[in-house]
């Protein structure tokens, strides 16, 4: 048999049937559902008098619209409230497991899936949300789908899809202290661009990836979509297996051993061919800060805002000029001199316990700078929150002047009350710095949790490598 | 199942604008809606009403724009929309065909359609018909003339029949035609492979019981 990539294996294992033109009916193992993209799918199901094919494969949670304060008082905005209540009603009507807002297990859909062990190696995982790529960290084939497809999966347990090309991103070497998975993700996007992964499924490999925790791998796969790839993935190893052991939805007892034996096959075979390979040296990656309105507009913290005048391509130059105008930055300004108004630590990219620990380590015993109006920490789930509180991290943040919130998407996309005001500048651990993403006119700089924490303390971006151990 | 599309005979309303985008078809504030149905009252909201529309408003209390073609008494109950080139451009929102279908349209005739919109229509039982610009011109004149201008769409024959007895042929992908004629949506089609899916699922359940 020819050598297969991890992606080849995952794909092949899920093909129910295939048409001559390569269009395949793909079986879906896990369907994650949230309140924004599901209502019409349930409605469609009802209109067609269909029922979900396999309710046990579905796990639902409301995350986009939920408030991060005073949750016991419900959702103030009636439209947001209705979306959440609709999810509750649909789940109840169809017998789907939902972690309701008051459930301590509730949180961002891409945080709770893995946390519960509901995301397992070898699965196909879909969700009506582009950041579903996160789950690929577990050697799963995971990607976002549209509302019609949500309905399609509910009704048939399958999806009509065509295979992508395979890309391998190899990051070898050892990361410097203070440099994280988020910095790798941003460096990769800076290297290949936001369309660099279009048409590909990306497998991340190499020594620096193996050395990452599951949290780090999730951060990396989460941002594969920002590189244009619908799916990102990492092969199974001991780290994967250790993480899953004992999780509520993970297999137990004799099944565990059987599952693990199968999971160990979920690696790219030696000599497997990729359609494209990109290599990065981990040792050369510095803490990254985006300066523009696309994740590919990124620089190292010790660098400067680029000068559009130096850009030969007129279309790119125009894009850079437009971004700098929106961001209120001038060319050649040092990145570390950029002052921030708000700091957001959270989102499905960076709201897991490891992220909060990294941020707390920077913050401990210090105070948020005068000029910073708001520094938010929003844990990715109720369980992350509980764990952090057990470790006393909430006190560390609160003592430093951070607000410690309840879990949800929060200021990642500002669909609830947490948002930037026009012109405000934010150091954010989220994944999109698009115009208006965190509120109309808001200016987003994407960074790692440690970098965001350091910016909160200093009031401007600083090289967190110099803070380590300080 | 989608409603099967066999013969359609209906009143025609002419919308004489080019490049009608999906934001005009259904403005973005309505995307917060939790339903796929119910977008009809907000179809072309900014043109149909003189006040600003927000989700949840009662259409009966809105200030109707009497000049907009859809609001004219002679076009009430229209099932065929006559449009100009590049209809449905802009974002890929599926809410646009949802709104058109919910309003009651089953077919749209235009010289050209935006690509994604065209496909989204077919997924939702709405037939987009491309005719030559000169033919569309003639239809605009006829539909704007004497009230009560109706057309018959024969999908099986791939023709639009006019009351004057003309037959205007149109092209459509054979597979999509088959789906429409039979009322198969993508889900309906996949469900024809229920046996395959069940066999696959059973094998998977045996091999990997922890996934079930
Ligand atoms: S945290 Fe942000 S990116 Fe992640 S699911 Fe929520 S809104 Fe989407």
Largest sheet of chain A: 5 strands, parallel
Shape of chain A: globular
The largest sheet of chain B has its strands arranged as 4-3-2-1-5-6-7
Number of domains of chain B: 1
Structural class of chain B: alpha/beta
Radius of gyration of chain B: 20 Å
Poorly predicted segments of chain A: none
Q: What would the average pLDDT of chain B be, to the nearest integer?
A: 90
- The CATH topology of chain B is given as Aconitase, domain 4
Radius of gyration computed on alpha carbons of chain A: 21 Å
Please characterize this protein's 3D structure.
The complex is a heterodimer of chains A (about 475) and B (about 210). With about 475 residues, chain A is an alpha/beta fold. Chain A has 15 helices and 19 strands. Chain A is globular. The termini of chain A are far apart. The mean pLDDT of chain A is about 95. In chain A, helix 2 (about 40-45) packs across helix 5 (about 145-155) and helix 12 packs parallel to helix 15 (about 450-460). In chain A, the strands form five sheets. Chain A has a five-stranded parallel sheet. Chain A has a five-stranded parallel sheet with strand order 17-16-15-18-19. With about 210 residues, chain B is α/β, with parallel strands linked by helices. Chain B has one domain (about 5-210): Aconitase, domain 4 (Alpha-Beta Barrel), CATH 3.20.19. Chain B is built from eight helices and seven strands, in the order E-H-H-E-H-E-H-E-H-E-E-E-H-H-H. Chain B has helices spanning about 20-25, 45-50, 95-105, 115-125, 135-145, 175-180, 185-190, 195-205; strands at about 5-15, 80, 105-110, 125-130, 150-155, 160, 165-170. In chain B, strands 4-3-2-1-5-6-7 form a seven-stranded mixed sheet. Chain B is globular. The chains are: A alpha/beta (about 475), B alpha/beta (about 210). The interface of A and B includes residues 43 and 82 of A. Bound molecules: iron/sulfur cluster (SF4). Iron/sulfur cluster binds near residues 64, 129 and 413 of chain A.
């Amino acid at each position: 048999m020819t050598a297969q990539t991890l992606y080849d294996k995952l794909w092949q294992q899920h093909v129910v049937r295939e048409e001559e033109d390569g269009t395949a009916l793909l079986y879906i193992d896990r369907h994650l559902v949230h309140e924004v993209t599901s209502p019409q799918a349930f409605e469609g199901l009802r209109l067609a008098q269909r029922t979900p094919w396999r309710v046990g494969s579905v796990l639902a949670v409301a995350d986009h619209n939920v408030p991060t304060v005073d949750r016991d008082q419900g959702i103030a905005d009636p439209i947001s409230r209705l979306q959440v209540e609709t999810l509750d009603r649909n789940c109840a009507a169809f017998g789907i497991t939902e972690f309701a807002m008051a459930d301590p297990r509730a949180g961002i859909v891409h945080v709770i899936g893995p946390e519960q062990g509901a995301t397992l190696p070898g699965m196909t995982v879909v969700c009506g949300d582009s950041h579903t790529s996160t789950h690929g960290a577990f050697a799963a084939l995971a990607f976002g789908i549209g509302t019609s497809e949500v309905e399609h999966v509910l009704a048939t347990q399958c999806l009509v899809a065509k295979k992508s090309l395979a890309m391998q991103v190899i990051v070898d070497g050892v990361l410097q202290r203070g440099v994280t998975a988020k910095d790798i993700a941003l460096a990769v996007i800076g290297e290949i661009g936001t369309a660099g992964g279009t048409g590909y499924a990306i497998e991340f490999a190499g020594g620096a990836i193996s050395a990452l925790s599951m949290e780090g791998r999730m951060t990396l796969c989460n941002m594969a979509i920002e590189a244009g790839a619908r799916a990102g993935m990492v092969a199974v190893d001991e780290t994967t297996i250790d993480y899953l052991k004992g999780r509520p939805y993970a297999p137990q007892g004799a099944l565990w051993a059987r599952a693990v034996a199968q999971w160990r096959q979920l690696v790219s075979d030696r000599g497997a061919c990729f359609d494209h390979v990109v290599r990065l040296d981990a040792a050369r990656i510095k803490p990254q800060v985006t300066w523009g309105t696309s994740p590919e507009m990124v620089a190292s913290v010790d660098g400067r805002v680029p000068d559009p005048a130096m850009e030969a391509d007129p279309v790119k130059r125009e894009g850079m000029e437009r971004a700098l105008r929106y961001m209120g930055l001038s060319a050649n300004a040092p990145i570390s001199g950029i002052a921030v108004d708000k700091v957001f630590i959270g989102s499905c990219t960076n709201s897991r316990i490891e992220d909060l620990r990294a941020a707390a380590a920077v913050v401990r015993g210090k105070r948020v700078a005068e000029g910073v109006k708001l520094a938010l920490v929003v844990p990715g789930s109720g369980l992350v929150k509980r764990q952090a509180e057990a470790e006393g991290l909430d006190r560390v943040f609160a003592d430093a002047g951070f607000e410690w919130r309840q879990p949800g998407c929060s200021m990642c996309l500002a669909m609830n009350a947490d948002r930037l005001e026009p012109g405000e500048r934010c150091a954010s651990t989220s994944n999109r710095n698009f115009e208006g993403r965190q509120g109309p006119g808001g200016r987003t700089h994407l960074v790692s949790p440690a970098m965001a924490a350091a910016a909160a303390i200093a009031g401007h971006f600083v090289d967190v490598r110099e803070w380590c151990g300080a | 199942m989608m409603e099967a599309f066999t013969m359609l005979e209906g009143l025609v309303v002419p919308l004489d604008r080019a490049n009608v985008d999906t934001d005009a078809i259904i403005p973005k504030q309505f995307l917060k809606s939790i339903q796929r149905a119910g977008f009809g009252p907000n179809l072309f909201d900014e043109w149909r009403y003189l006040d600003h529309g927000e989700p949840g408003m009662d259409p009966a209390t809105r200030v109707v724009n009497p000049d907009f073609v859809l609001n004219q008494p002679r076009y009430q109950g229209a099932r065929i929309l006559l449009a100009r080139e590049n209809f449905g451009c802009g974002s890929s929102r599926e809410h646009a065909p949802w709104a058109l279908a919910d309003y009651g349209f089953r077919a749209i005739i235009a010289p050209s359609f935006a690509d994604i919109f065209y496909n989204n229509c077919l997924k939702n039982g709405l037939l987009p018909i491309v005719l030559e610009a000169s033919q569309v011109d003639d239809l605009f004149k006829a539909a704007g003339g004497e009230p009560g201008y109706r057309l018959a769409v024969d999908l099986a024959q791939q023709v639009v029949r006019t009351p004057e007895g003309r037959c205007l042929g149109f092209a459509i992908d054979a597979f999509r035609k088959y789906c429409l004629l039979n009322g198969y949506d993508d889900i309906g089609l996949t469900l024809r492979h229920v046996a395959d899916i069940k066999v696959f699922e059973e094998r998977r359940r045996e091999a990997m019981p922890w996934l079930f």
